Amino acid sequence: MATKRLRDSANYNENVRNSILDKRVTSLFKKAEELSIVLSKLVTHEDYLQKKVDKKEEQISKLEKLNEAKEMEILFNQLVEGKSIDELDAREMKGLLKLFAQKGTIATLGDGSSVESAQKEGNGVNVEDDGHFKDLD
């Protein structure tokens, strides 16, 4: 609700002017408080959304790593079956080296014919000379 403007303040006494000023100041403080409440809700909502985005990015990162590991497992099996190492690009070579380091497998893949194992403790999987996995239960 709009208040009347003071056109001729000389006609009003000091008390009236002070009461109008007090009402305006009170109104401004009330509006400032409402604005701060709205802004704090927006900040809270923004924090919530940022946490959700971070969580989804972490899930995507995990899935990408899992996907790469599975690709390297498939590539490793293809090499064991006779695929030439010359057909690999740099990313595949790097991924295979990472896979070998994780599995503890040392491979001689000149022509894909011989694969030997150097099993780490607690690995639970052994690669035999014919290239097939054997579970150690």
Task: Walk me through the structure.
This protein has helices at residues 14-80, 90-103, and strands at 107-108, 114-115, 125-127, 133-135. With 137 residues, it is mainly alpha-helical. It has one domain (13-135). Helix 1 packs across helix 2 (90-103). Mean pLDDT is 77; it is low at 109-137.
Map the helices and strands.
Blueprint lengths: L13 H67 L9 H14 L3 E2 L5 E2 L9 E3 L5 E3 L2
Antiparallel strand pairs: 1-2, 3-4
Helix pairs in contact: 1-2
Which descriptors apply to this entry?
two-stranded antiparallel sheet; mainly alpha; single chain; about 140 residues; two-stranded antiparallel ribbon; about 60% helix
In brief:
It contains two helices and four strands; from the N terminus they run ααββββ. The protein has 137 residues and is mainly α. The protein has one domain.
Please tally the β strands and state the result: 4
Distance between the termini: 82 Å
Q: What is the count of structural domains?
A: 1
Q: Average the pLDDT over all residues and give the rounded result.
A: 77
Q: How can the largest sheet be summarized?
A: 2 strands, antiparallel
Q: Helicity, in percent?
A: 55-70%
Structural class: mainly alpha
Strand order of the largest sheet: 1-2
